[in-house]
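REQUEST ID: PR-0412
SUBMITTED BY: lab tech R.K.
PRIORITY: routine
TASK: structure prediction, single protein chain
INPUT:
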Amino acid sequence: MNTLKQRYQKIKQEVQQLSEQFNHKQSALLLAVSKRHPTEKIRELFSYGQHCFGENYLQEALEKIEELSDLNIEWHFIGPIQSNKTKAIAENFNWVHSVDRTKIATRLNNHLEGTGKQLNICLQINLNKEPQKSGFLIEDILQQFPQLLKLNHLNIRGLMAIPEHTDDPIKQAENFRLLKQMLDKLNQQFDLNMDTLSMGMSGDMTAAIQEGSTIIRIGTAIFGAREH
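STATUS: complete
OUTPUT:
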């Protein structure tokens, strides 16, 4: 029987081994993507030591956050962000990976005014200029970055991307390398120490860790098929 615990331990071990194989100082963080999975599974996974969970849909996430409020979970929002959802996201999440434009960053920041809370964020980059995907274009991010740095309630930790789908590991690695180079360039140009590359899922995990991913987003490979 392929249980939740077995799947989790297998993925965790793979991430650890890949991190060691590519000589990273520490293993990439495993983010369990729990969208469309029931709170019982999250609670069970928490009991095995998994404390970081990623959600894509706000309403579903808010219900889970309330139901699991007795657990010290670090909640990551990883889905598309509509302007009218920014207040609830800012108030309820520890991390937001999918900040895809300056307007959204500004709204998140403004909602935190007077709360004393700092929100960890990643800027989502549209690496391959795919029209159906949101995110900053690589050629625009340098220009917009100074404005983003003025948002003092946001802790810009790094970059996130969902590259175009390919099964070619060489192409996968090229895409992730591009994101890593962008992070290095921003750090150098603005004298920063951003430390996060949220990149890689089960299908391209090896290439992502090879190129320096610090957060791997894994859903079905841990939880099994989604419950609709």
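NOTES: The chain has nine helices and eight strands.
REVIEWED BY: pending
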